[in-house]
Amino acid sequence: MNKTYKKTKKYSANNEIPKEIWAVSAKDALKYFDVGKDTGLQKSEIKKRRNKFGSNALKKIQGKSFWQIFIDQFRSLVIGILAVAAVFSFVFGQWIEGIAVSVAIILNALIGFFTEYKAQRSMDALRKLGQITARVRRDGKVCEIPADQLVVGDIVILESGDIVTADLRLAEANKLQADESPLTGESVPVGKQIEKVESDVPLAERCNMLYKGTFVTRGSGEGVVTATGMDTELGTISKLVEEAEEELTPLEQRLNRLGRSLIWITLTLAGAVTVLGIIRGKEVLLMVESGVALAVAAIPEGLPIVATVALARGMLRMAKRNALINRLASVETLGATNIICTDKTGTLTENKMTVSEVVYPSHKIQIKKNKRPEKAQFLRDGNPFKPEKNSKFTEILKAGVLCNNASLHKRNDSEGVGDPVEVALLSAGAQADLYREEILKDLPEVREEAFDPATKMMATFHKQDNNFLVEVKGAPESVLNVCTRIRQNSEDKNMNKQVQSQWIEESKKLAENGLRILAVAQKTADSSQQDPYQDLTFLGLVGLYDPPRKGMDNTIESCRKAGIRVIMVTGDHPETARKVASAVNLTGEKSLNVVMGKDLDKPDNVSENIQRTWLQTPVFSRVSPVQKLNLIDLHQKNNSVVAMTGDGINDAPALKKADIGIAMGKRGTQVAKEASDMILKDDAFSTIEVAIEQGRIIFKNIRKFILFLLSGNVSEILIIALASLMNWSLPLLPLQILFLNLVLDVFPALALGVGEGNPDIMKQPPRNIQEPVLTRSHWMFIVGYSVIIALTVLTAFYLSDVWLGLEGIPAVTVSFLTLAFARLWHVFNMRDAKTGIIRNEVMRNPFVWGAIVLCIVLILSVLFIPVLSKVIQTANPGLQGWGLIIVMSLIPWLIGQVLKETEIDRI
């Protein structure tokens, strides 16, 4: 049934929103929500509406609750093995051992619980840093707010590349198209307009609506929020979708595979040791408990937890340095990155655009900032002048102000909301007392032809008496190509190829000074539907200066030392790109080869010689989104790990194709941010370097605690296995092994996992992305140190009997304490090769020292606290015993330091 709204009620807290809001006119829709398109909501209304409709957020997938995390700790294989040991103890009447193992189960669960809970809290905090924003008009001013703060009735302003953050009824649409495939499955972008449609049309045909979760692919527009959060169309769908299981990262998958392999290997070894001991006549219960304890000790159950903590802490550390990671898998890839394809504007430069030169026939104007930024000095051919007395100059500024989508924060401000180039044009106009809102009163905008990367131009139509004034700006070669006339003095003259070439040469000269160049043109049209890019009159050139970021040359030099090549990929003029590349010392050489994007074909379509040339080229200019894909493909086929920066909707394919897609947090579109693996909050290239450094540190930290865990755990197996083979009494008791496993496999490992890393890590080449977590040399490290620790402990056990005459519990205590302290000092063998014995990343890690102090206290507690001593079965070994323990426990550390200094151990 068709439904029309002849009389539209105004919004009130008691009214229900019309379900078919698309069936009313834009004017009536605004009237219903009691909001003006040019003013937006008043602050007093916002709270009322949020209270009625709630937050603009979909129901979040709930993470594990406090109790879920705790209960999950009892579902692991480790706990099952411990439970078997406890049952055996109780069956054989060993009540103390049974109770002790039960306590071990609880302690193991508590340690796992607190580490996982902390990791989840860290990840939750990280997600809050990456909120999507929306541009709205409130109290007559354009501002940017978190998308979840939108309320029904808000006026939202959208441009190409923006993600739609609520359901909207359009009130303005300029060549607007939207990708609605997330809702409708339709892959082709849908054109939008503001006229009302029939009430019973399906969602895919509601051409005056935009829906949450879709995104703008072209044009610009404004709309009033009609639904938020779970009341949106996307919210309705999300109610029907079951929670999907979160995928593990490649690193987590590899660690899980490693853990599963070790479980079966160690269970086999533990079973063999148990059977061998029983055959040799040892007590059955003792050997069963020892086998179980060995299995538990050797299984690195802390791997996934410690890895998650290391990743979470590293990602938070990156976030504090302005790098937000969207995907955990990116952290692993970051450490292997060896090519960075970066944009120029705002990444290598400060993104503080200012209009510095305006050139038109016969004159050149310079604009110089004074100490007061709102007041500039205007120089014509080197002499001061007042802009209001020069109609040709003000005509160019006026065109830049009108052909514009940005807005200034304040009337005479140099900062605003929108594209930095357009903000700079508004600021230059304001310095000459040309304000967009005032000019629009006499020349209201009736149409906008949004900027198109294909044409490299933008146009706006303005009502002027009985005609329309068309203002155009864009790349010089594009604008000059569609100009048939040029304004000289007081008349328009025909533009021929010679004059056109002269102005293209003039734009090159300006670009050689590092300026970004725009050409400005205009015409008068009879209709607002005319093609804006025909028969234009050229007005002049505008040069904008964006200074290189301070310290960029040092940052790029650091990347070179780290084995990372930096390649500039920009849509700007080749001479501008060359100038900036030289200023930041992109290659370390004076001469720079620049390749134009039009020459950048698919790698398979060109010869190997051309491919080699491109592989060595440091600067690519006038590059289109498709050509970026070709460049990424070329380097990936050359076995490089490529990071690519981008900010526009057209950059999304390149960001997805790159091994690491990096979106700009300030100027980047929401679509680019969603497609990326990492977001730079400050748009600075130096932040990429920081992120790569942290990626390397995180992976290396994970590798270090794995090496520490396995070399310590395998040594315990060797101790029991060798003692059984030699038919010795057990040098370690089951509860002692469990105790060391609980203490030493958690605190030192966690400390290594959250270390700040080697400050010289960026002086090393990137690792091969195909390299496993543990290479052959790492396994040699594990086996070698395990043997050293095991032999040290067995020697201490033997000497305590032969040399000190200790037997039974005192002798076992010597081997127990020797192993405990040997493994504790072993943490210092985790330092990088070529670092000093004292000055290295492990020594500088405060968490390591905290872990050592805590472990020493816990170890001594089971020796000197009677109750614990009785349970763990320890006794004071005496002064000589302590001397033996200290000397023998230091041997693995001493050997390790010698191996480090001789570089035999390069881990």
Entry keywords:
907 residues, alpha+beta, Rossmann fold, 28 strands, 46% helix, 17% strand
What would you note in describing this structure?
There is one protein chain. The protein has 907 residues and is an alpha+beta fold. The protein has four domains: 21-56 and 150-238, Calcium-transporting ATPase, cytoplasmic transduction domain A (Distorted Sandwich), CATH 2.70.150.10; 254-317 and 692-901, Calcium-transporting ATPase, transmembrane domain (Up-down Bundle); 324-349 and 549-683, HAD superfamily/HAD-like (Rossmann fold, 3-Layer(aba) Sandwich), CATH 3.40.50; 354-545, Calcium-transporting ATPase, cytoplasmic domain N (3-Layer(aba) Sandwich), CATH 3.40.1110.10. α10 (303-320) runs antiparallel to α23 and α25 packs antiparallel against α28. Strands 10, 11, 12, 13, 16, 17, 18, 19, 20, 21 and 22 form an eleven-stranded mixed beta sheet that branches. It has an eight-stranded mixed beta sheet with strand order 8-28-27-26-9-23-25-24, sandwiched between helices. It has 30 helices and 28 strands. Helices cover 46% and strands 17% of the residues. A hairpin with a 2-residue loop joins β1 and β2 (141-146).
